[in-house]
Amino acid sequence: MSRKEKVVVGMSGGVDSSVAALLLKQQGYEVVGLFMKNWEDDDDSEYCSTRQDLVDVASVADVIGIELEVVNFSKEYKDRVFADFLREYEAGRTPNPDILCNSEIKFKAFLDHAMALGADRIATGHYAQVRTWVNDGRTEYQLMKAEDGTKDQSYFLYRLNQQQLSKVMFPLGHLYKREVRKIAEAAGLHVFDKKDSTGICFIGERPFREFLARYLPSRPGEIRSLEGDKVIGQHQGLMYHTIGQRKGLQIGGIKGNQDAAGEHDAWYVAAKDMAKNVLYVVQGHDHPALQRESLEIADLSWVAGYDPRTHWVYTAKPRYRTPDAPCEIDRLGEGRAVVAFAQPQWAVTPGQSVVIYESRVCLGGGIIVA
What we know:
This protein is α/β, with parallel strands linked by helices.
């Protein structure tokens, strides 16, 4: 009798990873659950749900009938993810820690640990798919969008490489979220209606300014209008603001452009001058300063290991919640490229990732630098 394939499932205590483990067990795999603890600085119940999540994971593992292991990756998280997170904010950019967390923790530290446990593959509750195909005689692994477009998480996985994808399973990739919750309820998993986690990867949802100020010194400065360079307020630190931001500027009472109804347009963050410590704002959501037809990306990462074609029409997401936009890629040089869009993109933000697609295939992407 052939040996069952061993799959180690990253379990967070939520409904998605719980159902991923359940489905694999039902499909006949030898399943081991692994709970990752990745944050220790203020591990309390106010913002960090680690304790309750572990209780939920243990309960689910018991119902499913699988082994459970707990591992601490706090040092790896702090060194590989959080240190970069702070450097980016200090430099005035707006990073996406979920992307680095996936490539460095969930699919590197976790993958290495699982292989040491004798796993054949790992699995997570991400909404994405992996497709195997043969290209010029060699096997390639494609990262695909999930069936549920509203939950697709391929954007956060674009830095995964061929070696990682060859060992990864996404059991939920063909399912819709509502189906996942129904499966969990039918199986008697109490997390079937648990709220999805939000906030910073593994750190949780918390007052952002207060949290960031614990690690980076605040530098108050001027808020100026981009048009006319007039001082209209004070900011508490450029790190607290991102391009396109409307709330939290505390300049709502400053009058300016008026629309046809006689109402004054809202202010939006348009630029940061790090050298002068000045935050520049404009009025109106559709202000030209908030629109960009092209952008430059660096730190490129391509899933298949080779660059996509230049001057070929792809689609791209300059941030997670934006619709796919038609674009072309122009090469600049080693490690950099220009992405040119057919239509202007709103609030392009340095530090965020642009992810490139060909139909439903995620090709990779890079970090916005200009």
